[in-house]
């Protein structure tokens, strides 16, 4: 009993601590960084695309062509089919834009980005996604940071959120930028770049060995590597890159599952940050947050499934559940989100559990581009939800039929309630 109690309490404390930290990091404070406004950099903006609508790329070209800066180029690297690429080639582009197609499409997105680096002529490299949109003074804002720092992460903002899902995602993104980026930056903690809005000196990316190909979360891996090599990634809160939210719950689920897979895939590598002390340990927690979020709920499931071979006490379950729910409640208050939907925590639970587990096992992963247009599919239920709900149902049934009436009925009831909550989708 003591062994399982320790595991349950440890998982509850770890999951709750990260939830509480996010709330503690959150800040509305305006960052005033002393920057040198004089610069004359040659800039290369690199965008990797695959299976994106032609109209989206056309609007990207139109947006980036309006940048008010003389010395920059835009490199679009396509991993599309030859037929799709011919459509893109027909798009009118300014002279400082180049469109390439990779004949050998290995290395996933990182391979395409590395291809773009080889084709680039700029001293400063900026990596954006195809749906990114920037203001005309974008380079005038980011380049003063590049005078001072080797690498800079920029603020993401969701543009034109229309549906409830998109408004939820927009609020989640704003909270993440104020907490995990701005809040952590002000506390001197390592910043892990978002590949959708990241700038780095070319000499730096060459020095550290380019993007690591074949990795799902190539931006997280790059952040870990830069931290280990002593390169500071700054955060520019006033440099905004607008992007789009997933259109449907299915798209959101697949995106969160991909994040979790990438985190699980890098779990062992991320542990090397421990040699950097307290900041490194916090970095490990950040890098594995997709596995830490659902860890406590996972331990309750395991405790239910291993009964009666290993038992645990009511006290451990109640205490663990209390601090987990309290920390989640405090975070919900701190986040100041106006929208709420029970599908968000249930999607996170199932997507993170399955994605992180599969990533840690290094199973085969098929990359799915997150569509930015589509049909609303509120009636869609991922198979992972059904599986996890069934496992909680099975664990609850095993426990509730045990010999210790009070303990086993309590454990079983908790597991059965979780099973029902998971099925809150849709």
TrEMBL record:
Gene3D superfamilies: Spore Coat Polysaccharide Biosynthesis Protein SpsA, Chain A. GO terms for cellular component: membrane. The chain crosses the membrane at residues 6-26, 283-308, 314-333, 340-359, 379-398, 405-425. It is a multi-pass membrane protein. Residues 125-329 form the Glycosyltransferase 2-like domain. Keywords: Glycosyltransferase, Membrane, Transferase, Transmembrane, Transmembrane helix. One of its GO terms (molecular function) is glycosyltransferase activity. Its main location: membrane. This is Glycosyltransferase family 2 protein. It comes from Metallosphaera tengchongensis.
């Amino acid at each position: 009993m003591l062994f399982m109690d320790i595991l349950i309490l440890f998982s509850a404390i770890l999951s709750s601590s990260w939830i509480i930290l996010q709330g503690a990091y959150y800040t509305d404070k305006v960052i005033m960084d002393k920057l040198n406004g004089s610069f004359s950099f040659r800039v290369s903006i690199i965008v990797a695309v695959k299976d994106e609508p032609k109209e989206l790329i056309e609007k990207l070209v139109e947006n980036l062509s309006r940048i008010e800066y003389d010395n920059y180029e835009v490199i679009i690297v396509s991993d599309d089919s030859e037929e799709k690429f011919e459509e893109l080639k027909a798009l009118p582009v300014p002279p400082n834009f180049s469109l390439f197609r990779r004949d050998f499409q290995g290395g996933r997105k990182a391979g395409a980005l590395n291809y773009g680096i080889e084709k680039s002529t700029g001293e400063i490299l900026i990596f954006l996604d195809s749906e990114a949109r920037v203001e005309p003074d974008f380079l005038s804002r980011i380049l003063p940071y590049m005078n001072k720092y080797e690498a800079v992460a920029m603020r993401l903002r969701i543009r034109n959120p229309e549906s409830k899902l998109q408004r939820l995602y927009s609020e989640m993104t704003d909270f993440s930028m104020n907490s995990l980026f701005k809040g952590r930056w002000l506390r001197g903690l390592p910043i892990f770049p978002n590949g959708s809005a990241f700038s780095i000196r070319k000499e730096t990316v060459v020095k550290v060995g380019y993007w690591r190909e074949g990795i799902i979360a190539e931006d997280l891996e790059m952040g870990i590597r830069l931290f280990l090599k002593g390169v500071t990634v700054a955060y520019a809160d006033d440099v905004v890159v607008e992007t789009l939210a997933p259109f449907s719950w299915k798209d959101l689920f697949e995106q969160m599952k991909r994040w979790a897979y990438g985190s699980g895939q890098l779990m062992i590598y991320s542990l090397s940050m421990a040699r950097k002390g307290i900041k490194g340990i916090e970095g490990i927690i950040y890098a594995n947050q997709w596995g830490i979020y659902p860890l406590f709920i996972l331990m309750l499931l395991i405790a239910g499934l291993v009964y009666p071979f290993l038992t645990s006490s009511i006290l451990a379950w109640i205490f663990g559940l209390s601090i987990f729910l309290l920390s989640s409640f405090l975070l919900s208050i701190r986040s100041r989100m106006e929208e709420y939907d029970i599908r968000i925590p249930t999607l996170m639970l199932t997507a993170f559990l399955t994605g992180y587990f599969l990533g840690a096992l290094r199973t085969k992963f098929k990359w799915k581009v997150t569509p930015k247009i589509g049909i609303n599919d509120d009636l869609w239920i991922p198979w992972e939800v059904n599986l996890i709900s069934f496992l909680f149902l099975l664990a609850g049934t095993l426990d509730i039929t045990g010999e210790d009436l009070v303990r086993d009925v309590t454990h079983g009831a908790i597991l059965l309630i979780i099973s029902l909550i998971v099925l809150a989708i849709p």
